[in-house]
Design a protein that fits this description.
Blueprint: E1 2-8, H1 11-14, E2 18-21, E3 29-31, E4 36-38, E5 51-58, E6 66-73, E7 79-83, E8 89-94, E9 105-108, E10 114-117, E11 122-123, E12 127-128, E13 134-141, E14 148-159
Parallel strand pairs: 1-9, 1-14
Antiparallel strand pairs: 2-10, 3-4, 5-13, 6-14, 7-10, 7-13, 8-9, 8-11, 8-12
């Protein structure tokens, strides 16, 4: 059994895999009669044929230690997860190693952070750590398969740092 410890999610550490969606220190623009700060263009959405769609996912919470048995990727589009509560969630990613995931990395978001996986990035399933597990998801809607899965011979164990 290989143990992987979580690390805090930062824009720098997550950059090879995608974007961190979070408030900037100051908004890009003040709108709505001066009552709203717009933090603009926080993720690079990237789709081949198809279009961007918004869905709601309601995932059951998991707990740490977590057994990582499978990772997936989407070759035809990025995938953004925006929590609809101020709870942290677990984000697991891996570089590609000849069409299989390399050794995974695990991140814990801070409350209010979302993420956007770049197209074709290996990642774990949506893993909230407490209820509610409600997320807005922005991803590719289109014809054809956009999912590849890889099941590990032996699961990894993800623990808190």
């Amino acid at each position: 059994m290989t143990i992987i410890q979580t690390q805090p999610l930062t824009a720098t550490s997550f950059e090879p895999f995608g974007d961190v969606i979070a408030l900037k220190p100051t908004p890009d623009k003040i709108i709505n009669q001066g009552k709203c700060g717009r933090h603009h263009d926080l993720a690079n959405l990237d789709f081949s044929d198809g279009r961007a769609g918004i869905s709601l996912f309601n995932a059951e919470p998991r707990s740490l230690p977590y057994a990582l048995e499978m990772m997936e990727r989407h070759p035809d589009g990025s995938q953004a997860f925006i929590p609809l509560s101020l709870s942290s969630f677990l984000v697991i990613v891996a570089a590609d190693n000849g069409n299989t995931p390399a050794t995974p990395q695990a991140f814990l978001t801070s409350p209010g952070q979302g993420i956007n996986f770049h197209r074709n990035v290996w990642h774990g399933v949506l893993t909230p750590l407490q209820a509610p597990g409600l997320f807005a998801v922005i991803d590719r809607i289109g014809a054809g398969p956009n999912l590849q899965e890889h099941w590990f011979d032996e699961p990894y164990t993800i623990t808190d740092a």
